[in-house]
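Researcher: Structure for this, please.
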Amino acid sequence: MKLRDLVHQVEVHTIDFPRFAKEAGAILGASSEQIHTASAAFVVGLYEGVPELLSDLSAAGVKTACLSNTNEHHWGLLSDPSHPAFFPLTRLDHQFASHLIRARKPDDAIYAHLEQVAHARGPEILFFDDVEENVRAARKRAWLAEWIDPERNDPLPQIREALKTHRVL
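Model: Predicted structure, token format:
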């Protein structure tokens, strides 16, 4: 419970990552450096086909965004071209990160923030998430929300199928 609370705190930046690493290390019997290393290993690279999907969406005139529960450490890795998990965030029209917004899914505030910044509401938004609670929260705002089964190794076929179902692509 305490570790989960720490994760939530670092995801909304009420504590910074060095403090998270120190406190998580104390709970787990690990050094801050070990927590830092384990955290870096948690971030995976792009799924095959993501750049092509983004190109297809852009060609169709679809605005794209990420809405991520994350922390400054992970966001930094995703933004670092030399890191294997690098993701060209600038290819997205909007980038929403919980630690920057200071709200996390499934809190209503993060969904409201996206709507305000992206100038989109309810069924104008097609949202994908691998956490059912986050999908339910998005649906409460009338978003078209699709759960991506995390047990399946590659989410791209699920996303492409939903895009077809919703007549986006």
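Researcher: Any notable elements?
Model: The longest helix spans residues 17-28. Residues 2-42 form one domain.
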